[in-house]
Amino acid sequence: MTDGLSIPDFTPEIYFAQSLEAYGVFIDRFGAVRRQFEVTVNGTLTPDGFILDEDFLYDDGEVENRRWRVSKLGEGRYQGRCDDVVGVAEGVHKDNMLSWQYRFRLDMFGRKVTVAFDDVMLLHADGIMVNRAIVSKWGLKLGEVLLTFRPSSR
Fold first, then answer.
1. Would residue 137 count as lying in a domain?
2. Who's near 112: CB < 8 A, 6+ residues apart?
3. What is the CATH number of the domain that holds 16?
4. Residues 6+ apart with CB under 8 A from 105
5. DSSP symbols for 62-81
6. Which SS3 state, helix, strand or coil, does residue 142 take?
7. pLDDT tens by residue, the chain, 154 residues
8. Residue 118 near residue 102 (C-beta atoms within 8 A)
9. Is 87 helix (H, G, I), strand (E, B) or coil?
10. Could you tell me if residue 142 is inside a domain?
11. Domains in the chain, number
12. What torsion, rounded to 10 degrees, do the Cα atoms 87, 67, 134, 37 define?
């Protein structure tokens, strides 16, 4: 018998200040896989937090780039900004978990639609991070994003 799962130390600004690769999927509210994607993430430590440069490659060949600027506010609180976030993203860190809530202008049906994201990220052993994001509009669940990060092998 083991003593239980070992919970790794997790400091978001340290974890994200490296090169990461991520693999994800968007599943609609009916359980259908709508999109698969890969992300190359390059993080940089800043005096007040970190910057994430994300390069997405979707299964249909679409490419998307996103830059997050994240500030550490203290007491486990973070604030993030990127071009398509409406206002700011609010984050809370505790133990090996980081949760994020924000409104995002998402490309849907040939136009930008504002949706809500409710993310939970959990760091596991060997730098593996699991991210689940519920995507909703007017309180109605549209689907969820499941994403796994790991330190880059490239």
1. yes
2. 84, 105, 106
3. 2.40.128.20
4. 84, 85, 86, 112, 113, 114
5. -EEEEEEEEEEEETTEEEEE
6. strand
7. 457 777 888 999 999 999 999 999 999 999 999 999 999 999 999 999 999 999 999 999 999 999 999 999 989 999 999 999 999 999 999 999 999 999 999 887 788 999 999 999 999 999 999 999 999 999 999 999 999 999 998 6
8. no
9. strand
10. yes
11. 1
12. 160
CB-CB contact of 100 with 117 (8 Å):
yes
Which tokens hold the place of 3? 């003593």
Domain span holding position 34: 12-149
Taking phi over 0 as left and psi of -120 to 50 as alpha, with beta for the rest, 3 belongs to alpha
Residue 17: name the closest of 40, 49, 44 by CA: 44
Q: Is the residue at 25 inside a domain?
A: yes
The predicted model scores a pTM of 0.90
Q: Please check whether residue 1 lies inside any domain of the structure.
A: no
Amino acid letter for position 60: D
